[in-house]
Amino acid sequence: SCIVPGCTNPLADNYDEAANQNDGSCILTGCTYSDAANFDPTANTDDGSCIYYGCTDPEADNFDATANTDDGGCMYLGCMDPEADNFDAGANMNDGSCEYLGCTVPVASNFDPEANVDDGSCVFPGCTNPAATNYDATANEDDGSCVVEGCTDATAANFDVGANTDDGSCEYPGCTDASASNYDASANVDNGTCLF
Predict the structure, then answer these.
(1) Which residues contact 11 (CB under 8 A, 6 or more apart)?
(2) Could you read off the pLDDT of 37-48 as tens digits, one per residue?
(3) 77: β partners
(4) Span 66-82, average pLDDT
(5) pLDDT value for 40
(6) What does DSSP say about strands 21-22 and 5-6: parallel, antiparallel, or unpaired?
(7) Chain segment 126-145, per-residue pLDDT in tens
(8) CA nearest 56: which of 48, 67, 47, 45?
(9) Which residues are CB-contacts of 32 (< 8 A; sequence separation ≥ 6)?
(10) pLDDT tier at 83 (50, 70, 90 boundaries)?
């Protein structure tokens, strides 16, 4: 019988049913890369069908430049708490970066134990008047507690309109000599007007 060389493998792309002697020309197309998900050990000609699973979104934190088929495992790191000030609606994996703005100083009147980023809103009530005896340099909100000493009697010669606490310093000028004819019992500062 005649020898007809050709591809005798019926699974080959170039199978020749007339051939009766395999000449090694069979072409078996498929994925020839062993690291691919669909590696075909019987293929001898790569057909570009190799599948590499991974995250194919360049915006993802685990983007895989070698992947050509998305496996649904893309990770987007960020803050996933809607209550946080930096909530990231696109995140699918919490990275611990959530920020809660507020006052983080425990001694402040508006201290927020939930806050982890100080936003400069802390309120420290106290006396903010530098002229007061109880002035508090750390206070940033006046609480009406300032003590400003001085003469609070409007009839006194040295009445201090800014004072809110009388310190006994009021001066009432007049004749303070009891033997004078114009002696003034309410005077505490002699003004040299005594008459004898």
Answers:
(1) 28, 42
(2) 999 999 999 999
(3) 93
(4) 97
(5) 97
(6) parallel
(7) 999 999 999 999 999 999 99
(8) 67
(9) 39, 40, 43, 44, 45, 46, 50
(10) very high
Per this entry, what is the length of the chain?
196
| Cβ atoms of 38 and 25 closer than 8 Å | no
Supply 92's token pair.
């699918």
Burial group, residue 151, by CB count within 10 angstroms (0-12, 13-18, 19+): buried
3-state SS, the chain, equals CCCCEECCCCCCCCCCCCCCEECCCCCCEECCCCCCCCCCCCCCEECCCCCCEECCCCCCCCCCCCCCEECCCCCCEECCCCCCCCCCCCCCEECCCCCCEECCCCCCCCCCCCCCEECCCCCCEECCCCCCCCCCCCCCEECCCCCCEECCCCCCCCCCCCCCEECCCCCCEECCCCCCCCCCCCCCEECCCCCC
User: Is a pLDDT exceeding 80 seen at residue 109?
Assistant: yes
- Using CA atoms, how far apart are residues 194 and 136, in angstroms rounded to an integer? 46
